[in-house]
Structure formats: C-alpha cells, structure tokens
Amino acid sequence: MGGGQCSRGRRSSAPAIDVACDREASERERRRHLRTRGWIVALVAAAVSACTAVTPAAPTEPPATTTTTRTPRIVDESDRPPVTFDPCLDIPDRVLVEAGYDPRSEEISDFAATHYTFLGCSYHGTLRTPGVLRRYGLNLNSGNITFAEVQEKVAEYATPIEINGRRALLEVDPSLRQSCAVTVETSYGVLIISRIYHPDHGNGVPNNEWCAGLEDTASRMAAVIDD
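Structure tokens predicted for DUF3558 domain-containing protein (227 residues):
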C-alpha cells in the first residue's frame, strides 16, 4: 500500500501508519454506529408517531328532539283535528287585563260532543258604571268545527272581516240582545270571542254599542294563537 493510505485488506508494516490506520478504522466504525443509531431513532420515532396518532372522534348524534305538544283537556270521537289552542290555559292574564277583564273571575265552560269539541272560558269585565252598566262578560270558545260551518250557520247576520290576517266574521244576532261575537279561523277550526252587556237599567244598551271595541279584543286574543 503506498501514498500513506490504509488498506482494508491488510495492515501496513510501519507502526505509525498502523496507528493512523487503526484510528481511521475506529473513526469509520464510530460514524457507522452513529448513522445506525440515527436510523433506529428515526424509525422508532416514526413508529411511535404512527401508534399515538389521534384518531378523529366519531361524529356525535344530535340530541333527540322532544315534543312539548300538550294533550287537549277534551277530545271527541270524530276525525276532526284536536283543539290545540286552549283559551283557559294559553291566554296570559296580562292580555285579559289589558282587554278589560278580570282573570280571577275565570269560569270553565267546555263542551264536548261525539263529533266536535269546544274548550271554553268566561270572564267578567272590570268596568262598572252605576246606573248605566252593571257588568259585561267575555266568552272564549275554541273549537274544531270548521270556519265554513260557522259561516253557513250565521250567514244571515254575519259580516266578513279580517283579524290579524285571518278570516273572521263579525256576528250580531238579533235574537241575542246586547251581545256580539267575532269568529276567527284557525288551523284546527275556530276561536269564537263573544261579549254580552248586563246594563244597570231596563233600557238596555243601544244596538250600535253591542260590538264596540270587540274587534280589538278579538285581535288581542287571536294574537296568542300559535298555529
């Protein structure tokens, strides 16, 4: 071997060269070990990373929706829709007070037959005028008869009107003195708002006052319907 280089097959006879060759061989071995250890570390790191990779969480199902639909207090045996608006439960006291009626005077006046249902309540008015008005009463009846059925029945004395964008009828029945009614169409049937005066004298209430302000009252009550 010439030129001071170390041969991998045999050793040189010069001690200095032998020492240099031994050092070179040791350095090569050390570097080989370092490279090998680096590869091992890299492989282990890759394996650990693969094993510890976060698995995406499975999509969660949305919570089941629960219904808050209330079962009507009364149901009939017909195939008519249930009466979903109950004036005795669904009209806030505040609305009654603002319309001039006392919520504490509430009286239940339901009516159920085999082929239709009415859920009803009555209230006393809060205004009293001695010598003129003894009291007045409000009746609220929510039923599953159709608007067309009412329209046919009261055609002789009813006037078509509109309440809160709904079809309605203003009814002045001459046989029911000092009273007036408004029938409002709903998705399940009708809401009938009727009022009667009880004067504090025998002269009665003039005809032109029977329905005074009732359309406003009907609008307040119908505004609560959520159908």
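Residues 99 and 217 are 6 Å apart (CA to CA).
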